[in-house]
Design a protein that fits this description.
Length: 474
């Protein structure tokens, strides 16, 4: 069920009405809404989700006992096996067949009947982090199965994040019966919901048309054309994914629940380290806390630190999908993180850290790193490794400096998207001041008309066919 469909808004309105009308039944109301929301994607997948949820919940109650470590490995193992079977088994069998020079996956093979359950990557990571945190006594187990079900399956974040942590969300769930409706929460909810709808319907979906058109035949693109189309894809995937995250935050506010921000205008990053503090924040922090630090982090010397960085980012790439290009995308970002660490060390030795305070240096660094990010997006968007490399060869050739033929309008659009990205950053970092100015100097009738116009524009620009979110496939 997509956030920008009439069916979802019907579910949201009915759930909200029941939620605030029957405070004592709130947990059950949200639990049922979660099941209805996820069940639309397939009732068999819902049964699987409920089964893994139940195993993880009851297994977590045994993590503090004598055999806690055994139960931890059991919980993590079951969840990883579940993810591996649905997401990676076909990829594994195909590559194993190539190694053995055998055709293990045929046209009528059982493996090709496997369908990836929506949101499995996200809820698997939540199960693992919750279990590890309970085992390490960082959090207490959920008070009940239904509390745990709402924590992991709250329909606002279930399908594409943000990835929730037990210490962030469980305390909110446990206090849900005592929540009082607040005007502030409804205002913030409406703001983030409309921001997300605007990004998805008026930006991401229209960018998708051009991106899909040109990337359908990447072999026909010149180097300069490929750069422009890759710029467009960079903004498409950002506005598509951040739109979902913004709407998730807005829906959370409606229920008095606070979800973490998942994006902080990442294309204004000046380096790889900053980028991963701004892009898919809950995933990058998860990778840091449960993989990078788990591998030893920086505690075992510089060479081991760089190896851990590279491996953690490679696994992050593989998390996105069972394709070698996703793995290479992760490796590429791992290499960028290592290079940035080396560059920072060099600047300190040469006493050039003053550069970080220069605005001009900052602008140049942002432009350079945006182009490096776009090189990575080529591997993310084109799933054929040979095709990706060939397109990159053209993009990095001297001919790519020429004006892109027939792409002037798209080049202008890219500049406009970057300007909007900067405005978005200003809006989010000065939201309190802007909100105060808006409510002080614009009377409620004017605000109402502005909201109505924005809603009408979104409805007018909405495409007739449903367009899913890119990260639903992960």
């Amino acid at each position: 069920m997509l956030f920008h469909t009439p069916e979802f808004f019907l579910l949201l309105i009915v759930t909200l009405m029941l939620f605030y009308t029957f405070p004592k039944w709130r947990l059950y109301i949200i639990a049922l809404a979660n099941m209805l929301f996820y069940g639309v994607s397939g009732w068999g997948f819902l049964v699987l989700f409920l089964a893994v949820t139940t195993l993880t919940y009851y297994g977590s109650l045994l993590l503090q006992g004598r055999y806690g470590k055994i139960f931890l490995w059991l919980i993590v193992g079951v969840n990883l096996c579940n993810l591996f079977f649905f997401k990676y088994s076909v990829f594994f069998m195909q590559n194993l067949g190539k190694m053995l020079d055998m055709q293990l996956v045929t046209e009528n093979s059982f493996w090709l009947t496997i369908v990836l359950p929506i949101g499995i990557s996200f809820y698997t990571f939540e199960f693992i982090s919750y279990s590890v945190d309970v085992y390490k006594k960082k959090i207490k187990p959920a008070q009940s199965w239904i509390d745990f079900w709402i924590f992991v399956a709250f329909f606002a974040h279930l399908v594409a994040g943000p990835i929730m942590r037990g210490n962030e969300f469980l305390p909110q769930v446990e206090q849900i019966r005592s929540l009082k409706p607040k005007i502030y929460n409804f205002k913030m909810g409406a703001f983030f919901l409309m921001l997300g709808l605007f990004k998805k319907i008026m930006l991401a979906d229209y960018l998708a048309e051009a991106v899909n058109k040109y990337f359908a035949h990447p072999e026909l693109l010149t180097g300069s054309q490929a750069w422009v189309v890759t710029y467009l894809f960079a903004f498409q995937i950002y506005y598509d994914f951040s739109a979902y995250s913004d709407m998730a935050i807005g829906i959370g506010y409606f229920f008095g629940l606070e979800l973490p921000r998942n994006f902080l205008t990442p294309y204004l990053s000046a380096n790889a380290t900053e980028f991963w503090r701004r892009w898919h924040i809950t995933l990058s922090s998860w990778i840091r806390d449960y993989i990078y630090i788990g591998l030893g982090g920086s505690r075992r010397g510089i060479p081991r630190k760089y190896f851990n960085l590279f491996l953690a980012m490679t696994l992050s790439g593989i998390w996105h999908g069972a394709l070698w290009t996703f793995a290479i995308w992760g490796m590429f970002h791992g290499a960028l993180l290592i290079l940035h660490n080396l560059y920072m060390s060099m600047k300190q030795k040469l006493k050039l850290t003053w550069l970080d305070k220069s605005f001009i240096y900052r602008v140049i660094a942002v432009i350079v790193f945006f182009h490096l990010t776009c090189i990575g997006w080529v591997f993310f968007r084109i799933h054929d490794l040979q095709g990706s490399l060939e397109l990159l060869r053209r993009m990095l050739s001297p001919d790519a400096l020429a004006m892109p033929v027939g792409m002037k309008i798209y080049a202008i659009a890219v500049l406009g998207l970057f300007v909007f990205h900067i405005l978005e950053h200003y809006l989010l970092t000065h939201s309190v001041k802007i909100s105060a100015f808006w409510h002080k100097y614009f009377p409620s009738p004017v605000r109402a008309v502005a909201y109505a116009v924005l809603i009408v524009l979104v409805l007018l620009f909405m495409k007739e066919e449903e367009t899913g979110f890119i990260y639903f496939q992960f």
